[in-house]
C-alpha cells in the first residue's frame, strides 16, 4: 500500500510540471461546456421543460459536471502502455519487482488527482456563473461522489489497459484506440445523458463498462441516485472494475508470454 | 500519399476509426431528436442538413490542414528549421507534409448524411439556392482551413498551451453542427462574427429553408459565407506571418 501511495504521488508530480498545458485544457473544457450546456438546455426546452428527469438547470449541471470530469477520467487518450509494448520498453516494466498493472493504475490515479482541481474547477465555476448549478446541499452525495469518481477513474484505466494490450498483437493501434474513444464518447454519457438514450441503445450501454465512467459519478454527485440507489451505482462500478481489471491481467499474462522484444 | 495505403490493414482500421468518429458525432444529434421534434426551430431533417454541411466542411479542412496542429511538436523538436531552409513557403510545406487520407472516412459519412437529408427537406429550389448549396461546403472548408491556420499561428507564442486553440477550431466545428439559435445571444455572436462557425452551415440552411434567423443573425447572412471565409483567411495569413517572424528557433 505504501508503494502504491508513492507511485500515486509520483504520477501527480509528473503531471504538475505542465502548468500552461493544464490551463489551456481547462479553458477548452470550459468552452465545450458552454456548447454542451446550450445543447442540453435547448433540447430540454424543446421537450417542454423536462426530459427524462432533467429540467433546464439540472441538464446544464449535467453538462458542466461531465466537462469537469473529462480530464481526470481521461476520456480521450491513454496509449502509454501500447507505446512501451511497441518499442520494447515493456521488458523493463516486466523486470521491475512490482506488478505492472498495479504500478500503471497508481500513475493513472496520480495524474487524475492532479487534474481534478485545475481541470475540474474552471468548468464548474463557469457553469455557476452562466447557467447556475443544481447541486445537493447535504454532504452525503459528495462523499459517495468521491468514491464514485475514484471508481470511475479506475474503470477508465482498466478499459484503456485492456485496449492498449492489443499492441502485443497489432503494430498500428490508432484505429483501435479511436474506436475505444468513440464507444466511450457515446456510451459513457459524455455528450448526452445515458438516460436519454432510446431503449435499444440504452441496453447496449448497460452491457458495457462505459456508463460507469461518467454517467455513474455524475448521477451520484447530483443525487439523482440517492441512498441505496447510489450504493447500487457504486456496486455496478466496482463490479465492472473488478471484472475488467481481472480480464486485463489475464490478457497481459498471455501477451507477455508471447512477447518478443523487437530489435537486439 | 500512396505510402499511407501501403500498410493496408492499418489504413483500413484508421479509415474505420474516422468513419466511427463521424457516426459518433451524428449519434449525438440522433439521440437528441429521439427525444424532441424540434431543436432551435429546426426539425430533424433540417438539423441533419446543418450537421452534414458543417461536417463536410470541417472534415475536408481537417483532411487538408488538420495536421498543422502538430506545429508545437515541430517547434519543440526544432524540426521546423528544416522547413525554413527550403525555398518554399513554410506553411505550404507544413500542409503538404502529411495529408491524412484516413480522414476521408469522416468526409464520406457527412456526404452520405447530406444526400439522405437533402430530399427530406422541403426546399423551394431556385438557381441561386442550388449555387448556394454547391458553394457552401467549399466555403465552409475554407473557413475551417482559415481557423486551423489561425490556431497554428498562435502556437508560435503558446507552444505548450496548444490546447487553448482547440476551443476555437474543434469547438467551432462542434458548435457549427448545431442550429446556432440554441445558443444565448453573446455565444451566438461569438460563433458567428468572431469564430464564423454559424456561416458554415446554419445560416446557409436558413436561406435554403426560407426561415428567418434569430435575433442578431438575420437570414441574409447565409449568403455571406465567402466573405466570412475571406476575413478568416486574411487574419490567418497575417498572423501566420507575424508568428513566423516571431520564431527564433529552439537553439541547438
UniProtKB/TrEMBL annotation, chain A:
Protein name, per record: ABC transporter permease
Source taxon at top rank: Bacteria
TM ranges: 142-163, 175-197, 229-252
Organism whose genome encodes this protein: Jiangella ureilytica
Keyword Membrane among UniProt keywords: yes
Keyword entries, A-Z: Membrane, Transmembrane, Transmembrane helix
Pfam families: ABC2_membrane_6
Automatic annotation (TrEMBL), chain B:
Pfam families according to UniProt: ABC2_membrane_6
Domain of life: Bacteria
Keyword entries, A-Z: Membrane, Transmembrane, Transmembrane helix
Keyword Transmembrane helix belongs to the record: yes
Database matches in InterPro entries: ABC-2_transporter-like
Membrane-traversing stretches: 12-33, 45-66, 107-128, 134-159, 189-208, 220-240
Ranges in coiled-coil conformation: none
Matching PANTHER family: INTEGRAL MEMBRANE TRANSPORT PROTEIN, SLR0610 PROTEIN-RELATED
Identification of the protein by name: ABC transporter permease
Protein source organism: Jiangella ureilytica
